[in-house]
Design brief:
This protein is of the alpha+beta class. It is built from four helices and five strands, in the order E-H-H-E-E-E-H-E-H.
């Protein structure tokens, strides 16, 4: 996957590409901007670019960028399912710069991300977001994500976390 667009010729969504070594500083800067937007701590972009490179080299991570220059970033982490030999994907990060939100870029970007996960053999994808992030939740739900265990049939699924250091 070098670059791709939606198949609709009237689509003006910026191209999406799988990040390569030369793209990782831009990807890292977008991720740092994302954390800073929400007042979360973030490492220096140069360190993060090196870390992304190591994650990609490990084979279980894909970094995708939308736009030229990049205006959005996604980080996918892959793992083998507990219940089968199929791959699963975790959408660890998904960000579009604030001034371009609400224009369909995030939705089109997510479509390409889902296609990329399928191409890598994933049969399942999960992610986390906050209750307050209504825009992100709308995009995810538009693409069929559900926050109920059992795909809408079960109880509300909750995400827990714990720092171990």
């Amino acid at each position: 996957m070098n670059s791709t667009r939606a198949t609709d010729p009237s689509d003006t969504t910026p191209p999406v590409k799988l990040a390569e070594a030369g793209d990782l500083v831009a990807a890292a800067q977008l991720l740092v901007d994302f954390n800073r937007e929400y007042d979360d701590p973030a490492p220096e972009p140069t360190w993060l670019a090196g870390h992304l490179s190591a994650l990609i080299a490990g084979g279980d991570t894909s970094v995708l960028l939308v736009g030229e220059p990049a205006v959005g970033v996604a980080v996918l982490r892959f793992r083998t399912s507990t219940w089968s030999t199929a791959a699963e994907a975790y959408l660890a990060e998904f960000y579009v710069v604030p001034q371009l939100r609400g224009r369909g870029i995030g939705s089109a970007f997510l479509s390409v991300i889902l296609d990329h996960a399928r191409q890598r053999g994933a049969t399942y994808i999960d992610l986390t977001t906050t209750d307050a992030d209504h825009a992100a939740r709308r995009v995810y739900e538009k693409h069929g994500f559900d926050c109920h265990e059992g795909r809408g049939q079960g109880p509300l699924s909750l995400y827990y976390e714990l720092d171990l250091d």
